[in-house]
Amino acid sequence: MNDQLAVVLGLLSVAIVMFAINKPRMDAVALIMLTALPFTGVLSMSEALAGFSDSNIVLIAALFVIGDGLVRTGVAQSLGDWLLARAGSSSVMLLMLLMVVVAALGATMSSTAVTAIFVPVGLRIAQNTGAAPSKLMMPISFAALISGMMTLIATAPNLVVNSELVRHGLDGFHFFSFTPFGLVILVLGMVYMLFAQRWLPAGDGARSGQGGRPSLTEWIKEYDLSAREHRLRIGEGSSLVGLTVAEARLRDTSGASLVAIERAKKLLQPHANTELRVGDVLFVDLFAPNANVSAFRQEFTLEPLPITGGYFSDQLQEIGMAEVVVPASSTLVGDTLVGADFRHRYGLIVIGLKRGTESLSRGLENQQLHAGDTLLLTGPWSTIRDLQSNRRDFVVFNLPAEQDEVLPVSGRAGLAVACLLLVVGLMISGVVPNVQAALMGCLLMGALGCVDLNTAYRAIDWKTIVLIVGMLPFSLALDRTGGVELAADGLMYLVGDAGIYLVLGTLFALTAVLGMFISNTATAVLMAPVAIALAKDLGFSPYPFAMIVALAASSAFMTPVSSPVNTLVVGPGNYTFGDFVKIGVPFTLIVLVTSIFLVPVLLPLSP
Description:
Membrane topology: Multi-pass membrane protein
Number of helices: 27
Subcellular location: Membrane
Main location: membrane
Transmembrane segments: 30-50, 57-75, 95-119, 140-161, 173-195, 413-431, 460-478, 498-531, 543-563, 583-605
Protein name: Citrate transporter
Shape: elongated
Structural class: alpha+beta
């Protein structure tokens, strides 16, 4: 061992220790190593920074943006609803469908991103079914990790291993080279999870609110709103046709508040000068104590339509609620709700008033407002979000848990899916490089309004990007100083005379164990060159060895800190460190055995 190699290995050891104790955070460790490596004389500063120009780094960043587009447009939420509809009352079918969908979506985007998408989906499913979140969160994390074994772009370690093959002058893996292994392991994972459910903590069923926040259902009950909402279509000959909302004076003549108007399948916020048309669907709140809906319909020739959610909660994406408190300094104190003219001043209507513990939901129009009154407002979410800026007249007291389910960009899910399919199609066909296909997808999503530049920058997990860039120089440094050959020689000495299965098994185990202490991406950076060198020494094709490293790097099932995927589900699933050890270690052994027997069959060992 030469002096330069000793210094590089010393830096690597320091990095592993800091990764293991998580101090400082991983991206900071990567930056420290990137800064320190040029001092060894092995690399220049330009070579240390070369990772920032690596096409795989740009590809990973682009995939984060594409994943965010799928979240913002509601693709993930629609998947959750579809899962519930297809699974029915079968918990077995739900578990299997959930894992299949997570793995399928994760095959084209970051496993961390897909887990972030499906944690709220899983919590929503748990809430709707009464199941314990712990029964769904670990299957989600396992499926997301397995998704990394599905395609070339599914996870960063695959791209790192592929990049190492290319760096050695070899052809890289194809888009679907990983798929046969991933499908087999996914099936094993689903069967394993069906039996492992009994070992997961029982926990409590998901509650209606999140983080102690109230739900719309609770407000509907608390303010007695359930019998007040009506959907009414304006018919031919209605006296409302041609009138503006201000001219119709529904509040004054009939004790009705117009919450929203549906026109051509789009929900409109009613303004004073909005003209009413034949076929408009009115979302009406009849708040007057003696309001008669039948007389109201007959008077204005309105056709009743069914309500599918309590107080328009089926229109959750457009219509929201908020509780606000009237402070003593408010200009509203002493005014009536009619005089306050909330619709004109704030774009919202008051549907409930609470004075102390007493809730008033009818006869509100003539109630004088007092300091300390709590008002329940309804209207468009965009307007509700703007309430935060008004601190003089009222203070936002509560926003419902359902606010988290509101899509920033609704109605564009089909466009987002089309962009994703285009990217995948271009990658499969090889017409353009993978990174160019991903960038085209990002630009197209931006042009179609699925994402914007600000959200795109926020969507990228810069910590992951910096971690990969900071650790990539170690691969080159170890290669130049003979560290890769030394590691390969060490493995050769230990298992070189053994059968190929033991060699592959040892390589898998070493990669998986190393991944318990450092990120799977950093593990791939370190182990990929070792695997290729070992294959060369043994006279075998490098592809089975590189595939073993990639599969082992994604097998981060054993601890909650093995991967960000696991870390994301610890809180929602209420897991302990021991839960992951108990469930993850046996399954990692299953994946190890499956991989060492399957890889030589599908990827010939002969060079």
